Amino acid sequence: MRQPAPPFCPSLKFIAASLLVLASQLGQAQTAAPAPEVDLATLARIRDAALQSDFAWQRLANLADKIGPRLAGSPGAEAAAAQVGAAMAAAGLAVTQQPVKVPHWERGEERAELVDYAGRPAGITQRLVLTTLGGSAATPAAGLTAPVLLVHGIDELAARAAEVPGKIVLISVPFDQHLADNGLAGAAYGQAGEPRFRGPSVAAKLGAAAVLVRSVGAANYRLPHTGATGFAPGVQPLPAAALSAEDAMLIERLAAEGPVTMKLVLTPRTLPDADGHNVLADLPGREHPDEVVIVSGHLDSWDLGTGAMDDGMGVAAAMGAVQVLKSLGLSPRRTVRMVAWANEENGARGGKAYFESVKGKLPTQVAAIESDFGLGDPLGFFGAISEAELKRLAPVAQVLRSIGAGVMTTRAGEAGTDIEPLQQAGVPGFAPLVDTRHYFDYHHTAADTLDKVDPQALRKQVALLAVLSYALAEMKTPLARVPAGH
Amino acid sequence: MRQPAPPFCPSLKFIAASLLVLASQLGQAQTAAPAPEVDLATLARIRDAALQSDFAWQRLANLADKIGPRLAGSPGAEAAAAQVGAAMAAAGLAVTQQPVKVPHWERGEERAELVDYAGRPAGITQRLVLTTLGGSAATPAAGLTAPVLLVHGIDELAARAAEVPGKIVLISVPFDQHLADNGLAGAAYGQAGEPRFRGPSVAAKLGAAAVLVRSVGAANYRLPHTGATGFAPGVQPLPAAALSAEDAMLIERLAAEGPVTMKLVLTPRTLPDADGHNVLADLPGREHPDEVVIVSGHLDSWDLGTGAMDDGMGVAAAMGAVQVLKSLGLSPRRTVRMVAWANEENGARGGKAYFESVKGKLPTQVAAIESDFGLGDPLGFFGAISEAELKRLAPVAQVLRSIGAGVMTTRAGEAGTDIEPLQQAGVPGFAPLVDTRHYFDYHHTAADTLDKVDPQALRKQVALLAVLSYALAEMKTPLARVPAGH
């Protein structure tokens, strides 16, 4: 649905039905929606301009193809910050490179083989495909060889504490694609990801020699999925890696027949913190330039792929959103600020540094959007705000419906890693709702490359972010702050 | 459909319809089929026993999980020959280890990066994912750096001969999955594979420094697909590798903007020929033990995956076929001989050595089946024989129809690489028809692993090979020889 139709137009019945659906979604099935706080025609103009623009696609192609991996501390990360800053300045935005001290972790060698198992012919070993987790410690340079202890979750690991010392622990939890196919990719990630997030620390405390997790992802092409892990304070980090799903299944089969012994070589290095940058690009507000609506993605990406979807798509869409407002000559009441965050993947230092810079003037931070679930078509957006406040954004949903992105819903909690500090301080947080059915096929793998991104899905996401950020910046009064614990 | 039903049974109408379809397939829509040359009840008994057996699955699991890669000349190849021989002897078959001198090629290091291209920020290079082709020569140990010449086929390569000297040639032809989805995976392989088969030799003659091909395969998970290449007599081999599809697409995009320069390190070695073995396991014939029907797959496999589908599935199905006949106490007129070929992938020496061993007694070689298109459900079989001769195998198709494998068709030419020398000498050749829609997702990659094989599809293939090989061995008179050039 585009703009409200004049009375008595030929498709009145269709439009009436659509309005009824909208009203019902707003919980006001029997009454008309209140007059919108922002001009629908302007929102529609933004949407349509976004769908005509290839600015974001060109930014994404430049990031992914010309620079590629952008892990914090790497040359790619700094090249990307410079490239994004230059592109936004060229588009007429006011650019700030905000310094951020970032972790600096390098991958090094990663290889493993099964050196013994029941039924192994003499002279045969089995090469495994795996990738080191961010934050992992190193094995000795020559590797370590130890028996494998196979468990199927953190609970089983804890229950078998006595068996852990000296072992290479494999925590094997498959990714539940069925959940992802049903719009619950986040839940699937949470379930399969728990061993990666928490397992290494738990195993380290119990005296493991190393820990492996089954790769957190859907498609099985012997593709290991990296990602950050962490260790609780006081726990000595140990070598930690993600096995390809196939190799986790192989060990499951072999372990059913007898002991399995592995040789593991991981040589990552944790270097001193490096200089990184959040890139800020402002479209100054016409009434309250000191008040800010953030629209953002994260610029850093894992080192295996080229970060086209995680999160090149999000950062390019945020860049495109501000650029489309600028290109239309729009200047909403408040400043719209594009932020390309420096360090989402392994430290969240970008979001923390930004928060430090604004924590003395938090009322100026009106709302924050982060797009970090890219790849698929956007379906709408969610806000970590109350139902009542969300209704004020009905015009946004209304103009996005014609591009299939008109769903609007509340969802408590973090809308994005980098905006979480702001959210915890009461700033309303938002994120796009997107088709994530295939997101975890590629997430944190070498296969996160530009060819996976549909240019039209990117244009739609630009439209969504532009319309939403404009509306948030244009509303007469800001959205209410969000109480702690919402 | 199982056995012919008695008259007046409840499903008479269905059976009559089915028989009509069968008769139509035989080109005899209006007349009844002739009396079968082999007993349908026996064929049905073989089929049903095969569907109950996990012998083949256990053989496949042992090959793929306990040994893994089995490239000719490797320790895995010899361990596999020993393992297969022992399993067939334990099943009561007469086993022969037939010596074969095989090529011995080892992969070594393989890495590449783009070191210059339009718009490259200072200090940035782009890592590529690629894998060396079997038969490739090595670059200098420190690598070679050269401009990339991008072409889209052998014709364009030849047309641009003047530009070739000193370049790293990339021949980029995408795999046509649409053909594969329509039962034409072989044609898709032929089209996309031509650059791999012929490109290196052509590029070498024109003075290239190295040649790359886009990986021949369907699913794009940054997964490089290896395979053999070859060089014409007198042509000096050059370094040759398959790029992941993503990286071929990346170079296409970058090359559209300006020159691209690559650093390439490939350090394969070609060693002296090694000792390998074809494994033969005979179920002796009751009337003509000297006459042989071959049922076979190839034991060697590429070194990246564990060769579960290419061709663990084929060799395990052939093993299972002979074992099921043995387990039923059957002894057809002629000998059924399981052959696990030593060297399909990079030299076809197994088939050639076998041919040398029988070429003085070719009339004893009655028919040959090779299964080397495994993974999916079998749909039937084809024979490189005349329509008239094929009709004699109607009972085979008839008993396989109930498991969805009742299609029977002629197809000229090679039915399998290893049986091709026999076929060229007039021996009727056969192969299963299988669902190959997803075969090239995994073909010659690290992802060719046991989890890709459906145990029930394997059982069905055992049934097919067992029924077909029994029928060929039991027929009163052998099939007619196939004229040259059929």
Automatic annotation (TrEMBL), chains A, B:
The keyword DNA damage does not apply. The keyword Protein transport does not apply. It is found in: Endoplasmic reticulum; Golgi apparatus; Lysosome; Secreted. Pfam families: Peptidase_M28. Its main location: endoplasmic reticulum. Residues 1-29 form the signal peptide. Residues 278-464 form the Peptidase M28 domain. Keywords: Carboxypeptidase, Endoplasmic reticulum, Glycoprotein, Golgi apparatus, Hydrolase, Lysosome, Metal-binding, Metalloprotease, Protease, Secreted, Signal, Zinc, Zymogen. Homodimer. The monomeric form is inactive while the homodimer is active. This is Carboxypeptidase Q.
